[in-house]
Amino acid sequence: VQLVESGGGLVQVGGSLRLSCTASGLSFANYAIGWFRQAPGKEREGISFLSKGKSDANAEYTNSVKGRFTISTDKDKNMMYLQMNSLKPEDTAVYFCAAATPYKPVLFGWSTKSMDHWGQGTQVTVSP
């Protein structure tokens, strides 16, 4: 199994980026999926989550990104995306896509320990 993120980069405050995640060896349709991020010196945090079987419109978001970030999927291409708008300096971090056996987030919450597969991460830097 391999997850690969792309789309990170340097953007100015207020700008937008779209992250992509492709998977080989698993189908996103069969997993609970999410986006996490890790800023320098901080723990990895979950920011956007989509339970297995739910539509993109029913995704969950942490308060810090709600209304600015949107998770989406393309089942035909086996891709997941994170559209990030109105970016702030505090959004600077390495962003990771992840997939979990569906029951784990239900029982244990959307924590890093619930996720079974991770991408290598992509850097997002928001400059003032």
Task: Explain what this protein looks like in three dimensions.
This protein has 1 helix and 11 strands; from the N terminus they run βββββββββαββ. It has 128 residues and is mainly β. A hairpin with a 6-residue loop joins strand 4 and strand 5. The termini are far apart.
Helix/strand order, N-terminal first: EEEEEEEEEHEE
- Can you tell me the overall shape? globular
Number of separate strands: 11
Mean pLDDT: 97
Q: How far is the N terminus from the C terminus? A: 37 Å
Helix fraction bin: under 10%
Biggest sheet statistics: 7 strands, mixed
Radius of gyration: 13 Å
Alpha-beta classification: mainly beta
* Low-confidence blocks of residues: none
Proportion of residues in β-strands: over 45%
Tally of helical segments: 1
Topology, element by element:
Elements: E1 2-6, E2 9-12, E3 17-24, E4 32-38, E5 45-50, E6 60-61, E7 69-74, E8 79-84, E9 93-100, H1 103-108, E10 117-118, E11 122-127
Parallel strand pairs: 2-11
Antiparallel strand pairs: 1-3, 3-8, 4-5, 4-9, 5-6, 7-8, 9-10, 9-11
Provide a brief overview of the structure.
The chain has 128 residues and is mainly beta. The chain has 1 helix and 11 strands. Strands 2, 4, 5, 6, 9, 10 and 11 form a 7-stranded mixed sheet that branches.
Task: Name a few traits of the molecule.
four-stranded antiparallel sheet; 128 residues; 5% helix; seven-stranded mixed sheet; mainly beta; 1 helix
